[in-house]
Every structure is written in structure tokens, then in C-alpha cells.
Amino acid sequence: QVQLVESGGGLVQAGGSLRLSCAASGRTFRNYAMGWFRQAPGKDREFVVAITNSGGRYYGDSVKGRFTISRDNAENTVYLQMTSLKPEDTALYSCAAGTLGPLGRIEYNYWGRGTQVTVSS
């Protein structure tokens, strides 16, 4: 069982930066791939970025070059550094923990409740 708690959201002006954190419980954090997703009101959940347990990174097209994911296995924490924020980045950001499935895709088993990011124009 893994519990995930996000923090670091808030209100920021367009062009600004925020760093989100996702703290995980459990001693097996290093074995999990971690991902960030976001959901804006009235829209479907959108993949943002993922990092595998070996450090491989995968970014959604809308955030490439602006967002960076990292993890600290000693602290059981994954971070999302967001720069050059745009109003369209406004959403509830959630982290998730998962493992690689048989087809090579990450299957997410655990989800946090999310932290709100609001970007004003």
C-alpha cells in the first residue's frame, strides 16, 4: 500500500514558476514509477509527466521544455518543477504511483488527492 500526498500548489501569474511535491509512504517507493496528471474543470484528466524507477522521463507534449520531474528516493518524494506557466496550466495536479505493465506502459495503482494550481493571466 502506498499513500501519496501532494503539496506546493497555489496561485501564480503567467510566466511564473511553482514546484510541486508528492510525498509517498512506504519503504518500496524506489520500486515504483511515478507520474503527474492534471484535470481542469470540465475536461478529462491529462497526463503531464512520468519518471520510472530507473530514472527514465516521459513528458506530455503540452509541458515539454517547461516542466521537469525528479525524484528523491531517500526522501520518498517526487517533484514537479513548473516554469513559464500559462493560464491553460490551471488544473488540479495529482501524483500517482505505478509499475510497468506487460505492454511496457505504466499502470498506476495509487493516487493522491491533488493540489490546485491556478495561473492568472
What keyword list fits this structure?
121 residues; mainly beta; 11 strands; 0% helix
List the helices and strands and how they pair.
Blueprint: E1 4-7, E2 10-13, E3 18-24, E4 33-39, E5 46-51, E6 57-59, E7 67-72, E8 77-82, E9 91-100, E10 106-111, E11 115-120
Parallel strand pairs: 2-11
Antiparallel strand pairs: 1-3, 3-8, 4-5, 4-9, 5-6, 7-8, 9-10, 9-11
Q: How would you characterize the overall build of this protein?
A:
- By secondary structure, this protein is mainly beta.
- It has strands spanning 4-7, 10-13, 18-24, 33-39, 46-51, 57-59, 67-72, 77-82, 91-100, 106-111, 115-120.
- The model has no long low-confidence stretch (mean pLDDT 95).
Order of helices and strands: EEEEEEEEEEE
Oligomer: single chain
β-strand amount:
over 45%
Extract low-pLDDT stretches: none
Give the total of beta strands.
11
Structural class: mainly beta
The level of helicity is: under 10%
Alpha carbon gyration radius: 14 Å
* Average pLDDT rating: 95
Provide a brief overview of the structure.
0% of the residues lie in helices and 54% in strands.
